[in-house]
Amino acid sequence: MCFGFFVPENHNRPRVCAFFVTFVPQLKSKRMSIKNDIDISRLPSHIAIIMDGNGRWAKEKGQERLFGHLHGVESVRDVVEGCAELGVKYLTLYAFSTENWDRPADEVSGLMELLVKTIHQEVPTMNKNNIRLHVIGDLDMMPDQAKLELNEALKETETNDGLQLILALSYSSRWEILRAVKRIAEDAKNGKIDPASLNHEQFQEYLSTATFPDPELLIRTSGERRISNFLLYQIAYTELHFTPILWPDFRKEQLYEAILDFQQRQRRFGKTGDQLLQEST
Ligand code: FPP
């Protein structure tokens, strides 16, 4: 059987059918095997994503920008599910930057409403799937309703120890680093720390990511190749994956592609390839 493929009414029919019988199952299984190609023992423990391209996706369809954000939520759901299924421990999503406050007022309020609604809706699913929500960023800037909803979601998911889902909201690295420096200066003034002996471990305690490991893989969608003020300190040794896919089109399959790309990299952390080889033998 040829499952509805166009087969000309001529003597080639058996050959065409044979082609599909032989190759179609292979094509299908190849498509399905992307996930199976992932080496589960070498998953990035922390994936960070700059979700970009919602506006362009909407524009392509002749729609308002918020339409793109609305569909972006579907991608968030799919990717969170994909990470949880695989066993990725931490996922950080750049949902709203400090700079995004400068967008048109109706887009900002629309995005805030969408966030509040989505978080409210997703808490039961997060609990069912043992997902804990965290938020990093300048939450004082958020509208009261959003703060309320977020705090409730943080509390309601706080005992979950599966995927740790970190939303970067009203977040920027420069804000975070500056805040850390101010806190360090304050602690130094009060004699709590000795500036001369301050090291990396102590410094990162002052960042909003203090309880999370650095991301091992950073994905940015939409073809842009920038970091846009995101986790600048934490991505010192992170592998970067850029994809032209616009965020509302990003799904589990694209997540698997990014992980496979990550697994093909040799992570040297400043050492030579030979040194790594010696260490592994
Ligand atoms: C970037 O696309 C996207 C954002 C600034 C917002 C991301 C928000 C969501 C995906 C929805 C809510 C998320 C959660 C976690 C519930 P852009 O608007 O900059 O697109 P453009 O570059 O094409 O203009």
Describe this structure in words.
The chain is α/β, with parallel strands linked by helices. The protein has a single domain (6-15, 43-265), classed as Decaprenyl diphosphate synthase-like (Undecaprenyl pyrophosphate synthetase, 3-Layer(aba) Sandwich). It is 47% helix and 12% strand. The model is unreliable at 1-30 (pLDDT under 50). The structure holds farnesyl diphosphate.
Observed structural traits:
single chain; 281 residues; alpha/beta; Undecaprenyl pyrophosphate synthetase; six-stranded parallel beta sheet; 9 helices; 47% helix; disordered N terminus; binds farnesyl diphosphate
Structure summary:
This protein is 47% helix and 12% strand.
Assign the CATH superfamily: Decaprenyl diphosphate synthase-like
Number of helices: 9
SSE succession: HEHHEHEHEHHEEHH
CATH architecture: 3-Layer(aba) Sandwich
Radius of gyration: 23 Å
Tally of individual domains: 1
